[in-house]
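ping. complex inputs:
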Amino acid sequence: MANKIKPRVKVPKTATAGEIITIKTLISHKMESGQRKAKDGSLIPRKILNHFKAEFAGTIIFEAEIAPGISANPFFSFNARVQESGEFHFTWTDDDGSIYEAKKSITVS
Amino acid sequence: MSINRRQFITAGTVSTAAVALGSFPYAALAFSEKSQTLIDAFAAGAVPAEGKITLTAPEIAENGNTVPVEVSVESPMSEQDYVTEIMLLGNDNPAPSLATFKYSPASGLARTSTRIRLAKTQDVIALAKMSDGRVFVTSKSVKVTIGGCGG
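pong. complex structure:
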């Protein structure tokens, strides 16, 4: 598997003020659980995304503490109440400290 | 006599149901030792009550590697009354902790769907913590055909 980690986010382009929108996020990641064994019997070390955060204009809307029990290519769908136009900022944190980001803006009328 | 037969029966059924619910806050759910530790830490002294949470998971999961689940909690999500956290546990997983979701009034709804790994047939447990400290719990049994933790 190619190790290119690519986040994909779906946010509606427009909304009316006060509307509750649904956001879907998906990121390609193996989420090695640390439970699997290699052919020689040694444990494959754990390497997962352990944290996800969704912010809107600096306010945290949704956060997830992720354990190895979340499937590979972690998917989350959640909601947000939007009052004004702005930008969503999504951040995933890897066990090795890498950070993956995505941004999406929404127009609120 | 002011109470007729129909009223009497209704009253009797309701009170029996109330007693049955009251005496077993969540006795119907059996937790593994590891899960219990996590639940106690999450509840922080509160006694989890049943209700409020809707946990949707398939009855039979062909592949334990990706089991779609959705959890939602009834709440107005206002500044005064909202859901702060939801914890998902796989009762019999080698590490029961699956994920903890945090919400704020800006979330609008306390509803999340994701995909989880389940090692074998077991109960998926969802706990929710409210802004006033109340804790709710629910669980759903999922049959797993192929386990999802390798090994």
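Chain A touches chain B at residues 20-21, 33, 35-37, 56, 59-72, 74-81 (CB under 8 Å).
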